[in-house]
Design goal:
42% helix, single chain, 14 helices, 10 strands
Length: 353
Amino acid sequence: MRLTDVCDWQLVSLPPRFFGWRIRGNPLALAFDPSLSQALENIDVLVATSMTDLACLKGLTKHLQSVPSVLYFHENQFAYPPNAAEHNNLEAKMVTLYGALAADVVLFNSRFNRDTFFDGAQQMLKAFPDYAPIHCLKSIERKTTVVPVPLPLNDLQAEFQQAKVPWSPDRPLKIVWNHRWEYDKGPERLARIIEISEASRLPFEFTIVGQRFRNIPASLEQLSRDMPSCIKHIGYVESKDTYLAMLASQDVVLSTALHDFQGLSIIEAMALGCLPCVPDRLVYPEYIPQGYRYTSQLKSIEQEAESVIVKLSDYLARLRDGEKLAPPDYCQFDYSEALSRYENLFFSLLAHS
């Protein structure tokens, strides 16, 4: 029996804006807005993201107190870049801690995510002046599992393999940067890499895509305005199929992230044939071998940009020498590998509810 055969899923979500209000005010909307609260009636299992104030929601919605709940951490508030004042506040951290305590099962999408959550929560509790029960973290640990977000990677590879552009020594190395246009993805680091590539006339061609929000980082605005000749495309791609075909046409997928807990955009690009070029930090060492990682230089954008240039130049030289380069294994993230773990977890919850 498959989970999809016996479950009727209902999605309840709020617009992705006003972070401070959203993470603290979401239980008010979910509990008292009829268009949202009706979906929470007569349910057997509640699955919430870590952005949901689950403890408060259960307190405001009495019938949910007896419903088994799963809290899924696709990120955590303790591991955001330290200069992100709007996301690095005590209240947001406490919301996620209370949610983890209130949940029956706590899931993380990576070991890096899990470990930074517990390390950060422990440091926070130790800094409190009194009555800080650090031992409460043990109760969360006992109900914690690491299960990645699954993706239909094998299906994507089969569908878009025709879009793959064969390597030819007479063309530039095609590099895609496919991330949200926000500060935590390191856009100023990308800009410096492109500046060096342009000034040095390196045979690199950049494609810059990703979700855009109201406030666009200045570095990406400038790149959009100036459009260095080494940029082939910059901007959001509306069509998913067009985007995936674009990924399949690239040689390398680049990350300059300061914050990544699984790296879905990197994994997707790897499945479509891109060699990863990622920093030696965050979640990447968990599944990307050393040979695909460049030296992390958080304190120096200039030195990190040079590290990226060295890695990209190495890829280019090896391809021109006829070496058959391929991305590392990504099978652990495919639906076929991950779905059974989710099914076992949910069937176990239902059996004990």
